[in-house]
Specification:
alpha+beta; Alpha-Beta Plaits; 3 domains; 15 strands; transmembrane; membrane; transmembrane helix
């Protein structure tokens, strides 16, 4: 732990950006997740902080209004904080969202056993929800994203309130998590209609003390543009040939279109960059990470940016030019709340150094303490040669082991 902290501090100093993590501590649940975890750890991918996010409840609420759509959140709502958000971006939570996906479960419970579940199911299906479980008073549905689930819950609450029916809604990564969140919300606010959810590690809820009529609104349009550019493509072509570049870019294009359901824009065969629009931000991040690994496996490095507009994505990709150790490396830049973060994939030499430091950390700590103590004692006793002798002994040790 100490070695990792020192290493992150040193790398952050060299990169001129804080390093929040090297690899990931996420524990995979299946073969697909294990593949991602293994690659993140093998490539020593670093999460870096370019501009620190100001994470607080007010900013989270403002983002929620933008994402769900102000027209979809009635004015009688009350936004409450049940548990404060994390004051920093968490590597584990961020990576888990990327590989698990954006779909979320919505749990609905009718308080007074009114016969309205059929109406709920019909509305949920219109909202692209898939019904997982149902009973006379409960429904569990899976929706494409957390924001879709919140928006659907608000519509259901409005539909029920017009008929003087109370209900509780909660959103979770699993059906069980959504049910637990609903139980907690009941304890906190009683039977006031509302929907509970998480944002950036915090627990929140929108409650509606008075009836309202749901509006037939759609979510605010949120594009997720991805800009990818091959670094030093001229040098790459000189070494590997034009055909190799075309093959890499065509593979990335095909993967984004077929596997990620993305729409390719601004790509011409033979070019070294492309723009794509992805269904969600986590899919855009996952697509970029996969594209970066594919390029690296074939000798190429990319700079990439993800944003709400084409320009924003391209500008973020350009920021990668200033983020390097000694040679340009693959960098993926994206936003979290109102901050900017990135995945930095170091070059093979840097990875080898990091790997050595991690695997030999106990020896390094001992060596560091030995040299420090020898230098400290020598300086205080007037024998500065002790520090030099310690360094020579360390070099001799390294050369013979």
């Amino acid at each position: 732990m100490l070695t990792e902290y020192i290493l992150r501090a040193l790398l952050g100093l060299l990169l001129k950006n804080k390093v929040l993590g090297i690899g990931t501590k996420y524990s995979p649940n299946n073969a697909r997740e294990r593949e991602y975890v293994d690659m993140i750890n093998y490539t020593k991918t670093m999460l870096i902080e370019i501009k620190r996010a100001d994470i607080n409840s007010q900013n989270i609420f403002n983002n929620l209004i933008r994402e769900v759509g102000s027209e979809n959140i009635p004015p009688n709502r009350k936004f409450i904080e049940l548990e404060p958000p994390l004051d920093k971006v968490d590597e584990y939570a961020l990576f888990s969202n990327i590989i698990i996906g954006s779909d979320r479960y919505l749990y609905i419970e009718v308080f007074n056993k009114a016969k309205i579940i059929k109406d709920f199911i019909e509305l949920l299906r219109k909202e692209k929800g898939k019904i997982i479980e149902k009973s006379p008073t409960e429904v569990i549905a899976r929706l494409p994203s957390k924001n879709d689930a919140i928006r659907a819950a608000i519509k259901l609450i409005g539909l029920a309130s017009a008929k003087k029916i109370g209900l509780r809604a909660a959103v979770g990564m699993t059906g069980a998590a959504a049910i637990e969140r609903s139980i907690r919300l009941n304890k906190e606010v009683g039977e006031i209609p509302g929907v509970g959810f998480t944002k950036l590690g915090g627990e929140f809820a929108l409650i509606f003390p008075t009836p309202f009529n749901p509006k037939e609104g759609e979510p605010s349009p949120h594009d997720n543009y991805l800009f990818i550019d091959v670094i030093n493509s001229t040098s790459f072509i000189e070494e590997y040939g034009k055909g190799a570049l075309v093959e890499i870019m065509n593979d990335i294009k095909s993967y984004i279109e077929k596997e990620c359901k993305g729409k390719i824009e601004g790509y011409k065969e033979g070019g070294d960059d492309l723009i794509a629009n992805l269904p969600s931000k986590d899919i855009a991040l996952r697509a970029t990470i996969d594209a970066a690994w594919h390029a690296l496996a074939n000798g190429a490095k990319i700079r990439a940016g993800i944003g709400k507009t084409r320009r924003e994505a391209a500008e973020r990709a350009q920021l990668a030019d200033d983020i390097k150790l000694w040679n340009p490396a693959t960098v993926i830049i994206f936003d979290v709340a109102d901050g900017l973060y990135g995945y930095f994939i170091p070059n093979p030499f840097t990875r080898a150094v990091i790997d050595y430091l991690f695997n030999e950390k106990s020896k390094l700590i001992i060596i560091f303490i030995f040299v420090f103590m020898a230098t400290f004692l020598g300086w205080n006793l007037g024998y500065w040669q002790l520090g030099l002798l310690a360094i020579l002994l360390v070099i001799l040790y390294g050369a013979t082991t």
